[in-house]
């Protein structure tokens, strides 16, 4: 009996093809690394879909495997606008039928307004140019289109109260962000719950978490920290993540109570109350 897997990302398909071509050429990862002038560990990352080669490396791969520019040309379609640690998760996000989000300190990217995203990027990139900031905001907020698709996923959003209280971008920006999420919840587009401060310790307080389910593939989990992220599809690990989410959700306010809290917080931000 075969074990269901989550959908393969385009990067993983690229890596699998690289592995097949390397084996067919009778080369080990070490031997291919010598020809490409990189470490065998990097070849392993390429084949697993964790990283993509640079154009020069892809060109040398084609020369080593005699693939007539195949991997260099394919690379052009795979270059992501997202950070390497998030690129694979971003691809899977588009295929998911159910997405369960938990946010610890900031609003999930797929729900961010332009003003909120801009304030975050301004904080992350103190030496930005206006053009860089504009591009980053467009890339981030374009993910909201996921909520407008005809085959749109079911989305659950669980927010630590810290997300609601921290004033990002100033009172007006924060109020607009909270009202935008509340509007989505009232329209039935997302299911919204807040974990209040009064709960104290809870099962997800160490990290943000995204759980993704698919129509005919195994689920996946994604966690992220500063400049790093981890996409998991091991059934045991994903199961632990799902249990932690369920435990946290059981401590959260009802949707009605959560909506009331979020709307009240939006008014408080508008009036300059922290």
From TrEMBL:
Residues 18-70 form the HTH cro/C1-type domain. InterPro entries: Cro/C1-type_HTH (IPR001387), DUF5753 (IPR043917), Lambda_DNA-bd_dom_sf (IPR010982). Transmembrane segments: none annotated. The keyword DNA-binding applies. Keywords: DNA-binding. PROSITE patterns: HTH_CROC1. GO terms for molecular function: DNA binding. This is DNA-binding protein.
